[in-house]
Amino acid sequence: MLPPSNATANPRQVSAYRLLGYENRLLRAEEFNDDHQGATPMGAGHTVTALYEIVPTGKEIQVAGVDPLKYQQPSTPTSAADTGETLTLKVRYKEPKEETSRLLSLSVRDEGKSFANAREDFRFSAAVAAFGMLLRDSPHKGRATYPQVREWARQGSPETGQSAYREEFIQLVQKAETLSVANEKR
How far is it, in rounded angstroms, from Cα 71 to Cα 56? Predict the structure, then answer.
């Protein structure tokens, strides 16, 4: 099963975050520990990539007209906020033929690496996510462009191994850009 996941951000490190690409599969907080909630089937040995967009504390974000809360105040961070962790990701999974899920919790720290120094797989995953946002004309696409997506995909493609399907992706991005330019000229 594709495990339900839950992330909790450290308010001293992160002012906002969102999971990219799983909008139609999000669970409510109270569903996370419920083993009867459906998740997408996934076989043993398969992998899933989950990307989070994170806005660091101190960076301004545009939030559409949210009024201050009348009956509550934002919570005060606990001592865990002083650990330097960026967020904690929780994933539930089931072993084959088991009915009860297990919790896997992983704390994540910002290592301060630039995007150019990120792993190839991460850069390629970012290219795929940006491509999806461009295709949907997502309000979250920021300043992403088709040429930028192609460049990220090239940077994220190893010289050997899995490069054939990645090259096919780059060609698909080129075709989408060509169609997009043709539509703009109409």
Answer: 27
Look up residue 30 and give its two tokens: 């109270």
| Whether 153 contacts 132, CB under 8 Å | no
Q: pLDDT digit string (tens) for 41-61?
A: 666 777 778 888 888 888 877
Amino acid letter at 184?
Answer: E
DSSP 118-156: S-HHHHHHHHHHHHHHHHTT-TT-TT--HHHHHHHHHHT
Closest C-alpha to 84, from 62, 57, 64, 59:
57
Distance CA 166, CA 164 (A): 5
Output DSSP code: residue 171. Answer: H
Give the start-to-end residue ranges of the domains of the chain: 5-62+71-108, 115-185
Find out whether 17 and 7 touch, Cβ atoms under 8 Å: yes
pTM here is: 0.76
